[in-house]
Amino acid sequence: MIKTKITELLGIKYPIVGGTMMSISTADFVAAISNAGGLGVLASAIYKSKEEFEKAIDRILGLTDKPFAVNINLFPGMQLIDNNVYIDVMQEKGVKIVETSGHAAPSDLCVRFKESGMTWIHKCVGLRYALKAESLGADAVTVVGYENGGATGKLDIGTLVLIPTVVDGVKIPVIGGGGISDGRGLAAVLALGAQAAILGSSLLVTQECPIHDNLKQALLNASELDTKLVMRSIGATHRVWANAAAQKCAEVEASGGSFEDVINIVSGEKSRKMYEKGDLDAGIISCGQGIGLVKEKPTVQEFFDRIVHQAEETIKTIDIS
Ligand SMILES: Cc1cc2nc3c(=O)[nH]c(=O)nc-3n(C[C@H](O)[C@H](O)[C@H](O)COP(=O)(O)O)c2cc1C
User: Fold this and answer.
1) Cα 201 to ligand 1 centre (Å)
2) How many domains does the chain have?
């Protein structure tokens, strides 16, 4: 069994965090990840009212007695309601772990996390942001390299360099990811000094993941070459699956398209249509290069058991002769 500072801090069995995924990290999926031994992270930004968010937390509490976290989204323009409303509910319901991502957490929010005794993890893409979070009182920091699915930020640092840079630069434990899809990746992240891995893209094809089977099948057929960076022209670079909508977005950006032209292609509403109806080109889906390593559609439990076993074997049998 791999024990690390993060498994101890969060009280989880495996050194694995199931990355927040907008519109996908709902209560049932989060509970499946936590029940399988990882840390499930609920995407609060999915919920448009206090009541809906309360129901989601209650649902998780009904489905698992294992640790889980809530993500507070700090990306500008993505908050449907004030983040303080989510934090009120988290305090009322006794949520113990909070993850922030997007920009540095405003100091008023950090104070609230600390007052409520929550363990606070901040996710970012570079040492300077990790140091800022540490100075604001973060208990752990997650860093994801340029290979990752979703927001890549502006610094474009690959996982192999980013993790040890941040491990050397901060005192708090580090969770690392970007391209981790199997046990060799988990072993690598641990070798680089991280105390756990964060996985996003590889979880998209698990049986419990609430996206249409057409999309899972298409992602299973994707290789490491089938991702694309979009939205750099509007200051919100994301790595996504290279479908027709992503191609269109890249063309619109290359020809100087406006903010509205880009947003029209990448809207959350279109992505949700894709997830629900399996219409593969309706919108975009964040996806990292690690999708090329994913060949099966396991349950989350099978997936986690397998990768942890493979990581243990890799660590034991690494052969440099
Ligand atoms: C479909 C999808 C949606 C995502 N949505 C979010 C999000 O809303 N907020 C966030 O902080 N990260 C988001 N991410 C990033 C993941 O939480 C995680 O950091 C990343 O996927 C890890 O890298 P990997 O995809 O290479 O495993 C998303 C990733 C994917 C694949």
Assistant:
1) 7
2) 2
CATH number at residue 62: 3.20.20.70
Centre of ligand 1 to C-alpha 271, Å, is 14
Are 178 and 79 part of one and the same domain?
A: yes
Residues 60 and 157 in one domain: yes
CA separation for the pair 238, 229 (Å, rounded): 6
Q: How far apart are CA 39 and CA 32, in angstroms?
A: 10
Q: State the sign of the Cα–Cα–Cα–Cα dihedral 198, 59, 2, 101.
A: positive
Q: pLDDT for 232-287, tens place per residue?
A: 999 999 999 999 999 999 999 999 999 999 999 999 999 999 999 999 999 999 99
199 touches ligand 1 (CB under 6 Å): yes
The response to whether residue 40 sits with its C-beta less than 6 Å from ligand 1 reads no
Is 301:35 a contact under the CB 8 Å cutoff? yes
Q: What is the pLDDT of residues 3-18, one digit of tens each?
A: 999 999 999 999 999 9
Name 128's Cβ contacts closer than 8 Å, sequence gap at least 6.
Answer: none
Q: Among 241, 237, 143, which Cα is nearest to 201's?
A: 241
Pocket test for ligand 1, best of 17, 21, 143, 272 (most atoms within 8 A of CB): 21
Any idea which residue has 């009904």 for tokens?
Answer: 62
